[in-house]
Amino acid sequence: MTVILSLFLSFGAPRAHAQSADYGLEISRKLGRGLWNMVSSPAEIPCGVRDDYAERKGAGIATGFFKGTLFFLRRLLVGSTEVMTFVIPMEATIPPVCAKGPEAQVQS
Q1: What is the pLDDT of residue 57?
Q2: How many helices (H) and strands (E) does the chain have?
Q3: Distance (Å) of CA 27 to CA 19, 65, 91
Q4: What are the φ/ψ torsions at residue 20 (nearest 5 degrees)?
Q5: In the chain, where are the structural domains located?
Q6: What's the whole-number mean pLDDT along residues 33-59?
């Protein structure tokens, strides 16, 4: 059912954005971003361990592993969604891998 809905929505999107001169750039950027999110998603696990270990020392290893695993799954889901719906232009919805502080802002 989800696949049918995705296909239905994807065929209507090119006509809606056909007037846009940079439509091809927008969808290629989204496809690349989705692929990068899928490939780089495992990096979230060691980043979670590193961040929690810096705050909590020994206990941070276990909590960081679980947080990293959740961030890994989130990035994998967002990446696969962007790949499946790349024909519908959209801004980035997730910060870069292992980003903390000011650089944790979502980048287009």
Answers
A1: 87
A2: 4, 0
A3: 14, 34, 10
A4: -70, 125
A5: 41-108
A6: 93
Q: What is the mean pLDDT of residues 2-6?
A: 53
Q: 34: which 2 tokens? A: 């989705």
Single pTM value for the model:
0.73
SS3 of 67, please? helix
Q: What is the CA radius of gyration of the chain?
A: 17
- Cα torsion through 17, 22, 27, 32, rounded to 10: -170
9-18, 65-74, 75-84: least confident range:
9-18
Kindly tell me the burial class for residue 20, based on how many C-beta atoms sit within 10 Å of its own C-beta (0-12, 13-18, 19 or more). Answer: exposed
CA distance 21 to 62: 49
Give the C-alpha separation, 68 to 45, whole Å.
4
CA separation for the pair 38, 94 (Å, rounded)? 12
Give the closest residue to 30 by CA, choosing from 73, 89, 75. 89
